[in-house]
Hints:
The structure holds 2 protein chains of 2 kinds. Chain A is an alpha/beta fold. Chain A is built from 19 helices and 18 strands.
Amino acid sequence: MSDQKRRRKLDPSASSSASTSKKPRASSSSNYAQDLRKQLKPDADILSSLRRLSAATSAAASSQKPVSISDLDLSSSCREVTDLDSFAVVHSIERLILSVARSILSGQGFSFDVPSRASSNQLYVPELDRIVLLDKSSSRPFANLSTVRKATITARVLSLIHAVLLRQIHVTKRDLFYTDVKLFGDQNQSDAVLDDVSCMLGCTRSSLHVVASEKGVVVGRLVFLDDGDRIDCTRMGIGGKAIPPNIDRVSGLESDALFVLLVEKDAAFMRLAEDRFYNRFPCIILTAKGQPDVATRLFLRRLKVELKLPVLALVDSDPYGLKILSVYMCGSKNMSYDSANLTCPDIKWLGVRPSDLDKYRVPEQCRLPMTEQDVKAGKDLLEEDFVKRNEGWVKELEMMIKTRQKAEIQALSSFGFQYLTEVYLPLKLQQRDWL
Amino acid sequence: MKLSGIKSAESSHDDSIWAATWVPPSSASSECLLLTGSLDESVRLWRADDLSPAAPPSRGHSLGIVSLAAHPSGSLAAASSLDSLVRVFHLHTSASVALLHPDSPSEAWGLNFNPKGSLLAVAGGASASIKLWETTTWQLAETVPVPHPTDRSQSPNPSSASFILAVAWSPDGRRLACSSYDGSVAVFDTERAKFLHHLSGHHMPVRSLVFSPVDPRVLFTGSDDSHVHMYDAEGSLVAAMSGHAGWVSSVDASPDGAALATGSADRTVRLWDLGMRAAVQTMTSHTDHVWGVAFRPSASGPGTRDAGRLASVSDDKSISLYDYS
Lengths: 435, 325
């Protein structure tokens, strides 16, 4: 009894909120949600509408010629990186070092010319629908106290990459860091210099044979060859296949899927994989478990380009979900120089959208209030070009900011754990409710 | 300024002690006495120097005492208990004077007499109002509704009304402040019984607040977010003091206005120097959550510096007494 009294003392408002019982309202909203189930048409109808979507997408994709920067008449020259094979990279490193040696011998010391990756040097190109780097660069001389450390690290990284390329092996970023911990100090330093080197040489980071560790997973109707091994993603269990970080080892993509479903969170991914969603509606399900990493973005672009499938995204209804979508679509600021290979334009926002919260009558206890930071992030997103181009997204973001409510994909679980796979997604696909 | 522990009385009650207040000198006693109320449903009176009982325990409260207040005359005290009743009784004879019923349960929490002793303000808990009772007739003089703070999106559960936890009177009797479970503090003008404004800053329950005895515009609040805020009661936050590692359950200002004492869930009592706005001392005499701290009112009136005394009570059933100098 004294425990109850203590609880009352600690939280006097608890019982009073229980007395204003929310139960009847919750059950009425869940009844409505279950009623939506009745609106579902048989699977065959949904599949046929999906087929029309994928046909439209592949037709659009093949009719579009790939535009490159040189085709556009840009006022300042832009820097782009391409995939080079290892010999070309080795040659360019050797050329760079030869010029360094020449400048030392002529008594002028040496300096590296590093392109700037700051936001002032980035430009969003609407025709290409991605961010590119302009040509501002800074010099990093050895003889200057403020840049001597960076210049040393750059030289060391160049020599390490050269060694790796000659042996035709791959290393991870951490591996590279550990070869000379005392010099690098912090892994962020060696990572930053690695990005600088790939900009300088004009090649992608994977052509330097430096790979990131695996983060994302894929499951669904896809068969591909990973370094010669045949992987069937329908048979990868619930966990799925880890997306290989080394995209050039991936070849021979084959699929009978109708679309690619991009999921933000691991929890939703597990739900879809366990319910074998991809067997009911043929698709490929992909997740980077949060912020997208380079390997997932490369893989997604590969899927889109080779299989010409539409990409639908399932993210949380908050500004960060849309930010993640933006990274897939237009690239991140860090890797903007490599945006040609990492971006996947034309991703459709399937859910969870702010309008869905009311449409599916998600109960109040699942709707979280947005903090000031969230609202600010949402307002910043409204300023972004890729959002402004899409009317529907602008409306949804404005609604989110106005109601100041956010919700996660898991909010739909309040109607039942399998609500996502049994009612929500099929209904969305049936109603062609993507933006 | 410093605190030095004089005495700690273990097992002064049979269960956790939740409320403590000093009783001003009266006709029955020439010195201040300490009144403590506990979960064991009794209220006990103690002498200031040696914590010896000054009167037998007074019963008649059910379910445990949440808050105590002593009438400025020193002869009466009011205690609110978990059963939502407020019992007013004579201190030395322990005879009940009045039993104040709220309209429904969970509508009485913290309480305080105004400096003149003419009104008793009771924080109305779930009724989202403050009830003002006349002390002569013990009739309800006024029910002052406490409006919701406007920025509801910050509060943890926007759909529940805020539970009013504590009330405090300014030393000149013109302002009344109340604090609630969602962290907002509301300030009222007492002459017109009118709501003036909210003071924002806390987003977690504010369980205790006190006006400075020397400056009627300065208000101190302690919150579950472990910070102590100092407000200008006319509208703004002046300073935020941190240092506690847990909920700040109780704040009290010293009679000379130079120091603040706080009791916290981290089992410590801290003394804060208001000139430096920092904690100068931490007392660790308690072994459990400190629920109440109270400075003895100065015999020569507020603003003077005589030997002060601080009492703290805790869940560990003990009362600690400190000399403040």
